[in-house]
Sequence to fold (314 residues):
Amino acid sequence: MARKFNFDLFRLNIVDLIDLFMPDQSSLIRSDEDIVKLLEIACSSEFDKEQETYTAKFKWSLRYFSDYKDLIPDRRMLSAVLARSILEKDGLIVTDDGISEGSSASNPPLASTMIVFFDLKRHLVAVEHSGELSQVSWKDHIEKIFDDVSLSLGKASTIKLEPVPEKHEIIGLFKSFDRITRIKATLRIPNPELTRYTQNLFDDLKASNVREYTQDMKNPGGLSKEENARPFATAVLAQQGYKTGDVQMEGYRNDDFEKVISGSNASRGAINSLKQFVRGLNANAKAKETKKALFEIAKEIDRIHPLDPQADNE
Fold:
């Protein structure tokens, strides 16, 4: 039976580094072409990252950069394959005389992989949900690769991936409080998909040249829950993934005081295309089949994370 292709959704955030030696605008990542160049170079072996644990040694690599701009020019998509190779691993080893503990290495090393799709039109990233890699620190290591590439290019910006919460998760939580007394979040505002709820907040921060903004709004008597007010705009930006870390909310529901942390789990999408076909897009797939699979991925991205997170909830 055909296996579905499942993916987790992340926001692509451009984050500026604090570096006194690269202050000019040319060292900042701002355009999609800057992102394309970074991703393409990241798929070179010189940027592989090694990881050591108590029982194993791994190598993280990006390979097979693909740009599908000729297939779907109005929805530019890129892809790359993230791999974790097992260089050494401790465990039980069977010998002629019995079984003993030791370290084993193979050459070439075996690897687990996941394919990553970059939707440049919406600055969203669909990361294959892999049983082997999704539960380990893949995000830390792909971001370390991005950091190294940025430095090699003389850039004072890098790329970070932030989970896009389940549809209405943060907004629904915000609205569920009868009286919300606190909302705390750190927002990242480059390249936002602006809506009527976030335009004013974005314009304010842009005019002030602010790209990362920590808000800790409190009022024991209750913050405004109006959709044109700052607390709700904060919830919407966080819902869209323009944040770093979790969102904290406190308040009263049914006369009980509650403190809730939200926003760390990514939305899950699924398409019916054969999983092995999607993973093999960079190999020898026909253009018509590839285009169909990419459209399915884009359609599923839009379904699980609509452009306006309130549009289908009104």
Summary: Residues 165 and 266 are 5 Å apart (CA to CA). The chain is about 25% helix and 35% strand.
